[in-house]
Amino acid sequence: MNSDNQLPAEILEKIDAYYDGELSAEEAAGLREELRSDPELAAAAARYEAIHRHGLRSTPEELAMRDGLRAELRELEASLPPVTVARERQLWPRVLAVAAAVLLLLVAGWYLLDGPDPDVRLAEENFVWLPREEALLGPEDDARDGLSAYDLQEYERAYPLLRDGVATGELDSVNLLYAGVSALAIGRPRDARDLLNTLLDTGNYPYDEADIHYYLGLAELQMQNRSAALRQLELARTQQGRNSERAGDLIQQLNAED
Amino acid sequence: MSDEALLAALRTDDREAALKAVYQQYREPCIRFLVGRIINRDHPNRQEVATELFTEALIILVQNVRSGRLIELSARLDTYLNAVSKNLYRRLLRTNREIYLEPGQLPEALVTPLPHEEGEAVRRELHRKMRELGNRCRQLLVHFYFLDLDWKTISELLGYKNAASAKTNKAKCMVRLRALYANDPAK
């Protein structure tokens, strides 16, 4: 029997690319033609193809079992109470109240932020843009401006658009996270903290909790609340998130300063 | 119950109870994640679609755990469920169907395929070789071929610098797998 190692590396890579869906129709036709013209090559290719067609696939038994598992889980689903997915518009009154309170606090405490405190400097140095990944969110074009501004890291523009977009229900409430990040970027840590806490309180975004804690930590640092910042950063470090490592580093820096 | 305990239970004789326990533990957060973050607002029956995607993702994960292909998780179980569901939704969008359907057929064979029995022998042989491959490579191939995840997600789950780096490493792992397979004296 022909062995796969008789196949040139270039052909092997093309076969991999074909099964990974990365070969164009023209390239696939060219490869077929090349293999067809050489029976020895074709025999070796058949054996290598079997790796993709049989080895790197779920077994027929597994595929056959899926129907049974589906039926079992459907039966279980039918016995459970329906999942309640929070409606984003319900957040609006809370966001308004929070915004009003924040404004008052901000005016009263503004002078506290105006200093070269080392914690504030650390918060600024450790601020990073949080990519939105590819979440599919609200469809309205106006609200999309806020998302575009955020993606371009134009935080001054993004912050009110995102905050208001959530408040009017045009945007999913998860955008409070990006509004919070934007608020932090433009030196509004209290706004950031309140928005992020509002989001956290919904309990609907376990996927984002570590990130929320990280930016809450930065907001607390900006406000020179070191112990609160450390608590938030510790939560960000221990939960799985995009900034967990960064949170750990920042905790070390803060401890080193003591 | 912890993720480790759930995974261990999925491999034991009490698999059905473990499957139900995982379903009940992660159903709500995963469906909320899908409805809130992933599924388009104009998609009909979003919650039903989310439930179906979650169910399929769970079945895929459970089968890979039970088969021994997926020995350990490099992130929390809910992270995996979310990631697999998200990719199933992407596929759903590409196929433009309203509910999730089984992944498509294999692409047309490039040359006349081996007879079924020989193909099955290749499967058994490859299963053995995957064990010799080393954990890092095995994880990469399982995440790509069996969990059907995209490179960006794989790079995040397995700690590669980026999607390109994970993909380059997968190519190296395939070279290694081919070498193991081609040099097998039992073949």
What does this molecule look like?
The complex is a heterodimer of chains A (258) and B (187). In chain A, helix 8 (155-167) packs antiparallel against helix 9. Chain A has helices spanning 9-19, 25-36, 39-55, 60-79, 92-109, 118-125, 141-151, 155-167, 175-185, 189-202, 209-222, 226-238, 244-257. The termini of chain A are far apart. Helices cover 68% and strands 0% of the residues of chain A. Chain A has 2 domains: 1-83, no CATH class; 89-257, Tetratricopeptide repeat domain (Serine Threonine Protein Phosphatase 5, Tetratricopeptide repeat, Alpha Horseshoe), CATH 1.25.40. Chain A is elongated. By secondary structure, chain A is mostly helical. Chain A is built from 13 helices and no strands. Chain B has 187 residues and is an all-alpha fold. Chain B has helices spanning 3-10, 15-38, 46-66, 77-95, 116-132, 135-146, 151-158, 163-182. The longest helix of chain B is centred in the first third of the chain and has 24 residues, at 15-38. Chain B is globular and about 50 Å long. Chain B folds into 2 domains: 1-104, Rna Polymerase Sigma Factor, Chain: A, CATH 1.10.1740; 108-187, Arc Repressor Mutant, subunit A. Chain B is built from 8 helices and no strands. Chains A and B meet through helix 1, helix 2, helix 3 and helix 4 of A and helix 2, helix 3, helix 4, helix 5 and helix 6 of B.
